[in-house]
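Hi U.,

Before I forget, here's the chain from the pilot set. I'm dumping it here mostly so it's searchable later in email.
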Amino acid sequence: MTKKRGGPKSPLTPKQRKIVASARASRIAAETDNPELAAKFPSDYVGNVPPPLGDFEPGVIEALQDRSGPYAEGITAYLEWGATRIWLGRLWPKSPVAHTHDIATLCTYLHSEAERSRLNFPHHRGLDSPALYDQPENLRREAVLTANEVRAAWIAAGRPGITKEWCKRSYRYLQNCIRDGHAKPYPGSVDPQPKTKETI
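Structure:
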């Protein structure tokens, strides 16, 4: 009798498993400043980039919102969902909701990226159509419900990850997007870099 290999079959499709893997890797890139991962997942990577506005960077949410102009709502969502995803990743393999950790990760990633798009918050590679919209309708509904359950558990845990450093990194991320031409500048932001023949 041939012994079956591996554990229980994943309920996720290959495409969904790829999204989960990407979500985990981008979370690690954002959390650890891993240059190798940063090359693959630049959207959530900040790295040791000099502060865009001299030595000033906001270190609390209120100052972050004040300094982010028209992106105040978007950067708050980016900050909070980013902290939620890092917190969720650190719980692995345990899940704070009824679903498995893989499904919770998938749903949180899909919904947070859709929120980024809804709020017109920039993406370092350009704002594409979020992967959530490519999923079946029943999964879209489930993703929103599950992601909000994860977020509620994160809030109940004390909103871990909302630190001075995370506020600064989020602000730096926005300024880098503006500098690279992925977001419109506003009074007080950095200026976009002029396009060269190599970047046009």
